[in-house]
Amino acid sequence: MQRYILTEYEDASPETQAVYDDYMRMTGDSSVPIWMKSLGHSSALARAYWERAKGTLFSGSLPLPLKEMIVFAVSAKHGARYCSACHAQSVLGLDKALEFQDLSNFVHAEAAFTLPPYYEHVVEFANKVVADPNQVEDADFEALMDEGFSREEICEIIAVIDLASMFNIYTSSLKMDLDPNYRAIL
């Protein structure tokens, strides 16, 4: 059963078209992804989800590749097929040192693949937050601070984890189909 309806650009209200236009302008994409089209029936919802994603991913002090890796890892941990595929593609587009098979090995705990140190400590922290945010200890913060992250950046990491969780719930509950340019990793 299809659990959602897509609102294509030409069928969208002017307010929703403005959200779609902002998305395409900001990301450089020439089309709107399925997750956004599934919200297109409500310009308020489409704008709210887009503003949250835009504000979390495209502002702040952390680099976009690290944020995309966090969203990918959190999505994989949650078993979120749509988000893990979407953000695997983003990671691979931003970090040419990684290949699809690397991310697949990471997700499936195959081979001896470990993430580059740049990502490893943050992903470990993200996995702990996803497992139980109430169990995050001062030592977890201190470990990230020892890696050079400020308290503000750690709060930004948590905001990215929260964003991923929100989108994971939305896309997974709807059993969202993958966009044609996404490759399933789960």
What would your notes on this structure say?
This protein is an all-alpha fold and 186 residues long. It folds into two domains: 9-57; 64-173, AhpD-like. Helix content is 63%, strand content 0%. Helix 3 (43-57) packs antiparallel against helix 9 and helix 4 runs antiparallel to helix 5 (81-94). It is globular. It starts with 13 loop residues before the first helix and ends in a 13-residue tail after the last helix.
Q: What best-fitting shape do the alpha-carbon axes yield? A: globular
Estimate the mean pLDDT confidence.
94
Strand content: under 5%
Unreliable segments (pLDDT under 50, ≥5 consecutive)?
none
Report, as a whole number of angstroms, the end-to-end distance: 20 Å
CATH architecture call of the largest domain: Up-down Bundle
Comma- or semicolon-separated keywords:
single chain, 186 residues, mainly alpha, AhpD-like, 2 domains, 9 helices, 0% strand, globular
At a glance:
The chain has helices spanning 14-27, 34-37, 43-57, 64-78, 81-94, 100-108, 117-131, 138-146, 151-173.
List the helices and strands and how they pair.
Elements: H1 14-27, H2 34-37, H3 43-57, H4 64-78, H5 81-94, H6 100-108, H7 117-131, H8 138-146, H9 151-173
